[in-house]
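ARCHIVE CARD
Drawer: 12
Card no.: 0347
Subject: one protein chain, sequence and derived structure
Cross-reference: see card 0346
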Amino acid sequence: MLVAGQAGGAVNIVQNALSKYHGHIRTVARVLTAARGGDLAIPLEPLDVFEQFTDVTDIGLSQVGQNTFLLDLMRNPGARTTKTMASLLMVSRAVSHIRRTGERILIFTPTSGNKGTALRDAIGRAYECGLVTPEQLRMVMLVPESSRAKLRDCALTRENTRHSVNPVAMANVDQPADVKQMSAEVVAAHAAEIMDTTGFRVWYTLDLDNYRIADAARAFVEAELLPVTENSPPRLHAHAVSSAFGLLGYHLGFEALATGLPGLRVPAKHPGFFLVQQLATPDMVTSLLGTKVPDYAYDSSSGLWRQEAALEFPAVTDAPDETIDATFYTKSPATSAQVNAIVGRYGGGGVVVSRRECLTRFAQVRALASNAGIEIGADPASIREWSLIKVLTGVLVARERGLVAPGTDVVVHGSGSYDDSVLPPMRDEHITRVSTFEELAALVRATASA
């Protein structure tokens, strides 16, 4: 067990968290099902070979600096992001549904990249474990063209017969988030027809609770490895967020712990939340702070944009609407009100970072990650997933500017980090480009009919 506020070193690991905490996750799912009126499928008892299927869900927690801890949610070599837990849980639910009803399932997900990669990895694992066959479970993934660099190779693309029934579509849309509307319209228009003609029931993944249920495990790991006691220093949980599903999942897990779960300590107090975002999509931070992005003045001598009005925003940036990572593509997320209420009750804050700030602190960030056994490549140009770098930069910036009080413990959620050397990119021949609603609908119908 780690001791808050003391120097650490070793990486503490909960092995196969999805299997270990499966009973607790079922408890969380039942609570959500009751709150929603019973329309959410509760994860069933672990399937055969469940431990083998979920053995990439190790979660690490280690101290990486003074009063700074890193929750490593990226230990699946096939995805390198926190989306693994929810994806394996969704696929296991799909397998349970198939076995219980005899229906076939076609998962359909719009994504900026990481969620789709994790789902494809989970389906590939389900095939390899013998839980399900391509005749029973398939998937269509839709990404915006701006996410091309996020697309990763996996077991499905290495075998053409499997890739053909698990296609990856890429759309040229005005705004990256438009893929959500495009895919929702296809489901609304064609799901019933696909079920009638092919026997495939379309499962659409954009439901917050698909992720909150799995992300509740973050609170369970903390309760086991770094429990909050009456004597603990003040604590914040820092996360690079798009919609903050991970923090809402943690909150759900914390609430379950507060009612008492076997084998885990009841936390003494709820930590605050600290949000980290980029200038292109800063809406959760601006909503939390009740402000807007400050006006930036262009400095023609350096070619940079500058501001000094707000400590929560970059002093210098290459562009006032800069995108560091295409993964963080959500504007005005519906989850802001929930997160604002939690921060209003338990404390916290937020900061927006620029790429220049990330690069200025790059060596320091790499050293912190290395203390948790995580290697970030030395060349920033090779990095394809920036969330770990963004959140560590945000914590460093926040401490420097006094946005985090001295002596506060910060648990950093390491939600994603990879480059092409550790997670190879998907080749062009494995991508189907679509331009219209009709082309996407035709691809979904063809996938179910193949």
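Annotation on reverse: The mean pLDDT is 93. The domain at 12-20+40-72+211-419 is CATH 3.40.50.1100 (Rossmann fold).
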